[in-house]
C-alpha cells in the first residue's frame, strides 16, 4: 500500500478482441489504476499468438514492479514460455499465472491495484480457479 | 481481544462487478478481516471474485462484519461504498 510502482498485467489470447475486452473489463473493475496490456492475435490480425506482441506488451505493462502474464489456452502458454526462455532482456520479475482468463484477470488486477507484488498478484489470479460464480 | 464490528445496509441496486472491485480495494486497506453477506452467503470482502459470487441484488440486506484493530473504520468504509455504488444510475 504505497505510491511505489504497481505490478503490470499482460493478457495473452488467441483473439485480439478477447484480450482487449478482458483488459477493458478488468480495468473498469479496478478503477483504472493498473497497467493491463492486451496481447491478442497474430501480427497480421488473425486468431493466434505473437511473440512480438507479448514482448511489446511486457514492456508497456512494466513500471518497475514486474509483470504477471495470463495466457488463455494452449499455444498462448507456449508463446509466453518461448519468449521467457529466449534469454532476452525482459521486465523483472515476470510470472505466468495458471488461471481462468477472465476471473484471473479481474482478481489479478485488484491485487495489483492494492499494491500486491508479483507473487501476490499471481496467487490472486490462481485462486480464481476456486471461485464459484453460481 | 480483537475489536469486532457489524452493520447492515439495504441495497438500492444490484451489486455489480465495478462496486465489487471498489469494495475489495477498500477492504484491502484495513488490517481487519472483513466479510460481507447477502441471502445467507458469506464472502471475503478482500476477494473481488468472492464478493461477486454472493450475487447481492437490489432490495437485499447486506451485512458487513469486520474483526481486527480497525474493524469500525472498515465497516463504515464498506457500508458507504455499498450505499454509493449501488445507487440507481451509479
Overview of this protein structure:
- The complex is a heterodimer of chains A (134) and B (90).
- By secondary structure, chain A is an alpha/beta fold.
- Chain A has helices spanning 16-30, 51-61, 75-85, 101-113, 118-127, and strands at residues 8-13, 36-40, 67-71, 94-96.
- Chain A has a four-stranded parallel sheet with strand order 2-1-3-4, with helices on both faces.
- By secondary structure, chain B is an alpha+beta fold.
- Chain B has one domain (4-85): HPr-like (Histidine-containing Protein, Chain: A, 2-Layer Sandwich), CATH 3.30.1340.
- Chain B has helices at residues 17-27, 48-53, 71-85; strands spanning 4-10, 33-38, 41-44, 61-67.
- In chain B, strands 1-4-2-3 form a four-stranded antiparallel sheet.
- The longest helix of chain B has 15 residues, at 71-85.
- The radius of gyration of chain B is 12 Å and the shape is globular.
- The model of chain B has no long low-confidence stretch (mean pLDDT 93).
- The A-B interface holds A 1, 25, 28-31, 103, 106-107, 110, 113-114, 127-128, 131-133 and B 17-18, 20-22, 24-25, 28-29, 47-50, 52-53.
Amino acid at each position: 500500500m504505497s505510491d511505489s510502482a504497481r505490478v503490470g498485467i499482460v493478457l495473452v489470447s488467441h483473439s485480439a478482441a478477447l484480450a482487449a475486452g478482458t483488459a477493458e473489463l478488468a480495468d473498469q473493475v479496478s478503477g483504472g489504476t493498473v497497467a493491463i496490456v492486451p496481447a491478442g492475435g497474430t501480427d497480421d490480425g488473425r486468431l493466434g499468438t505473437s511473440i512480438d506482441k507479448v514482448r511489446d506488451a511486457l514492456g508497456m505493462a512494466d513500471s518497475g514492479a514486474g509483470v504477471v502474464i495470463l495466457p488463455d489456452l494452449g499455444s498462448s502458454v507456449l508463446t509466453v514460455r518461448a519468449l521467457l526462455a529466449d534469454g532476452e532482456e525482459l521486465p523483472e520479475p515476470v510470472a505466468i499465472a495458471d488461471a481462468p482468463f477472465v476471473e484471473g484477470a479481474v482478481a489479478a488486477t485488484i491485487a495489483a491495484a492494492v499494491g500486491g507484488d508479483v507473487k501476490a498478484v499471481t496467487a490472486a489470479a490462481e485462486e480464481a480457479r476456486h471461485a464459484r460464480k453460481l | 481481544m480483537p475489536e469486532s464490528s457489524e452493520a447492515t445496509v439495504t441495497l438500492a441496486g444490484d451489486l455489480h462487478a465495478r462496486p465489487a472491485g471498489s469494495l475489495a480495494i477498500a477492504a484491502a486497506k484495513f488490517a481487519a478481516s472483513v466479510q460481507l453477506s447477502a441471502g445467507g452467503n458469506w464472502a471475503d470482502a478482500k476477494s473481488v471474485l468472492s464478493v461477486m459470487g454472493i450475487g447481492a441484488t437490489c432490495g437485499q440486506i447486506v451485512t458487513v462484519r469486520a474483526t481486527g484493530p480497525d474493524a469500525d473504520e472498515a465497516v463504515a468504509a464498506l457500508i458507504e461504498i455499498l450505499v454509493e455504488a449501488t445507487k440507481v444510475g451509479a
